[in-house]
């Protein structure tokens, strides 16, 4: 029993560290590609882990908080740290909840959750706090939310599906899937 708890904590910590390091590193190498409205945040492929282990839920949330703290200095502010992290938490919870809904052993519905939650929550954040100066505009929200969702979909379809295939085959051997 104790070994499972320790493994859960270690997995969550490793996922958080990987997510933060990948996002911060990507922003350093390619500024804006992991923190603007139209983004291809490579670390989002790690959201797939929420389908395979519940340890990914706190890991992704903490990793997102750390990564978004670094974006505060890039001018995105406190709002991105809060709203982006809430979107990541809700997406990870939904992914874990939908983990068994599969088509040809690929959890397509779960893979859509980061696009849905980030599109809605971060789309609202961008419209309300950055574009609208504390005013909501539905058209701007749809545009910004759509751009955020598009970036999420791109990552999860291009990188996430192959990662799922790998985890389906090797996840237990790699120690990623908890018993």
Q: Can you walk me through this structure?
A:
The chain has 179 residues and is an all-alpha fold. Helix 4 runs antiparallel to helix 5. It has one domain: Arp2/3 complex 21 kDa subunit ARPC3, CATH 1.10.1760.
Task: Chart the SSEs and their pairings.
Blueprint (H helix, E strand, L loop, with lengths): L1 H28 L19 H4 L3 H42 L10 H24 L6 H33 L9
Helix pairs in contact: 1-3, 3-4, 4-5
Task: List key phrases describing it.
179 residues; mainly alpha; Arp2/3 complex 21 kDa subunit ARPC3; 5 helices; globular
Number of helices: 5
- Ends apart, CA distance between termini: 11 Å
- Give the biggest beta sheet: none
Range of strand content = under 5%
- Radius of gyration, Cα only, in angstroms? 16 Å
Question: What's the CATH class label?
Answer: Mainly Alpha
Proportion of helical residues: over 70%
General form: globular
Mean pLDDT: 88
How many strand segments? 0
CATH fold-level topology = Arp2/3 complex 21 kDa subunit ARPC3
Low-confidence stretches: none
Secondary-structure element series: HHHHH
Q: Which class of secondary structure composition applies to the elements?
A: mainly alpha
Q: How many domains, as an integer?
A: 1
* Second rung of CATH, namely the architecture: Orthogonal Bundle
């Amino acid at each position: 029993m104790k070994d499972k708890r320790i493994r859960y904590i270690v997995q969550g910590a490793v996922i958080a560290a990987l997510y933060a390091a990948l996002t911060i590193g990507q922003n350093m190498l390619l500024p804006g590609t992991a923190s603007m409205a139209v983004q291809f945040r490579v670390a989002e492929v790690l959201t797939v882990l929420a389908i395979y282990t519940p340890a990914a839920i706190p890991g992704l949330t903490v990793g997102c908080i750390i990564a978004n703290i670094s974006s505060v200095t890039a001018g995105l502010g406190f709002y991105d740290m809060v709203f982006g992290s809430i979107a990541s938490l809700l997406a990870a919870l939904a992914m874990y909840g939908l983990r068994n809904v599969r088509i040809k052993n690929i959890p397509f519905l779960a893979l859509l959750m980061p696009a849905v939650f980030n599109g809605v929550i971060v789309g609202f954040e961008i419209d309300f706090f950055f574009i609208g100066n504390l005013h909501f505009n539905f058209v701007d929200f749809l545009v910004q939310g759509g751009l955020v969702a598009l970036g999420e979909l791109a990552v999860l379809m291009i990188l996430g599906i192959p990662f799922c295939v790998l985890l389906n085959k090797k996840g237990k051997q790699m120690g990623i899937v908890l018993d």
